[in-house]
Specification:
This protein is α/β, with parallel strands linked by helices. Helices cover 46% and strands 15% of the residues.
């Protein structure tokens, strides 16, 4: 059976990263987060990393050429042979066109786009309550995934911080950028004939229940077996 590309699509704070981690476990596919890749580059403090940091802090989007190169290289790694889960990419129609032409269609990769639909007021509240460990990168929220000790990482005891791109004014700019540049990507995938599903990203039962619904949909459509390791 062909490789599976599962694209988790939605506004910043819609739960793409959480769903990617849960589905990675159940499907046995690697989770590719462009956000994580970009933050790793920022941590290097080289010229490109500083440029990316400035863009992220202002709520802007990193240029397509940079993101495309990172993703194209990543999906060719051995662990992506059975398939992969994309989180945070593509964000523009240009990125989607390149992904479709140079990676998905040309290599016969079965593709499913899952749109996590969440009200923007819910998103702002979610991100305002999110904290991250500056050492290990673990993410927490004030509720329900709160650390055992308030504002302290469970894993290494570091003081948790608010990510620059989670500040309310930056979140607002990120949502505006999403409306301008990223929302049209879903329409592109639909008109291009890719399998696109809409899922309530704030649905009953929390993240685990949402992940189960997505997995069940994959099973019903005959995708779940692709790359599954358990």
């Amino acid at each position: 059976m062909s490789r599976l590309c599962l694209i988790l699509f939605g506004a910043p704070g819609s739960g793409k990263g959480t769903q990617a981690k849960l589905l990675k476990q159940s499907l046995g596919l690697p989770h590719i987060s462009t956000g994580d890749m970009l933050r790793e580059r920022v941590a290097r403090r080289d010229e490109l990393g500083l440029q990316v940091e400035s863009i992220l802090q202002s709520g802007g989007l990193v240029p397509d050429v940079t993101v495309n190169a990172l993703v194209a290289d990543r999906v060719e790694q051995p662990d992506c042979k059975p398939g992969f889960i994309l989180d945070g990419y593509p964000r523009t129609v240009s990125q989607a066109e390149i992904l479709a032409a140079e990676v998905l269609t040309s290599r016969g990769i079965a593709t499913v786009v899952v749109y996590l639909k969440v009200d923007y007021n819910v998103i702002v509240a979610r991100l305002a309550g999110r904290r991250q460990c500056p050492v290990c990168g673990a993410l927490y929220s004030l509720s329900p995934n709160a650390p055992t000790v308030s504002e302290v990482c469970d894993y290494d005891g570091s003081k948790l911080v608010v990510r620059d791109d989670d500040r309310e004014e930056v979140v607002t700019e990120r949502l505006k950028a999403y409306d301008r540049q990223t929302a049209p990507v879903l329409e592109y995938f639909r008109t291009a004939g890719f399998d696109c599903w809409e899922v309530d990203g704030a649905g009953a039962g929390g993240p685990q229940a949402i992940a189960k619904r997505i997995k069940n949909m994959l099973q019903e459509k005959g995708y779940r077996e692709v790359g599954q390791s358990n």
